[in-house]
Write a structure and sequence with these properties.
It is a single chain. With 82 residues, this protein is mainly α. Helices cover 73% and strands 7% of the residues. The chain is built from two helices and two strands, in the order ααββ. Strands 1-2 form a two-stranded antiparallel ribbon. The longest helix has 40 residues.
């Protein structure tokens, strides 16, 4: 999941940078370059969000694995741990 987020971020940033180089174009091409720049920014942000989500999920799994599973069994008033 984190790898996909990095790829999406890279594609978005490269798209935004390349479109930003063309912002001084004339007529319709300038508008298209601006729209591509905005789309690239959104892609970069979405990829970053995917990376952060993957990191949060990995952290939660590690925390859940660290919790000890202790089961107490009571037999005639005495507590016995396995």
């Amino acid at each position: 999941m984190k790898r996909i987020g990095k790829i999406v971020t890279a594609v978005g940033v490269v798209t935004a940078l390349l479109a930003g180089c063309c912002l001084d174009s004339q007529d319709v091409y300038g508008y298209l370059a601006g729209a591509l720049c905005i789309i690239g920014g959104f892609l970069g942000g979405a990829g970053y969000a995917i990376c952060m989500l993957a990191e949060r999920r990995r952290t939660e799994v590690v925390i859940e694995m660290d919790k000890p599973d202790i089961v107490w069994i009571e037999i005639e008033g005495k507590k016995i741990a396995p």
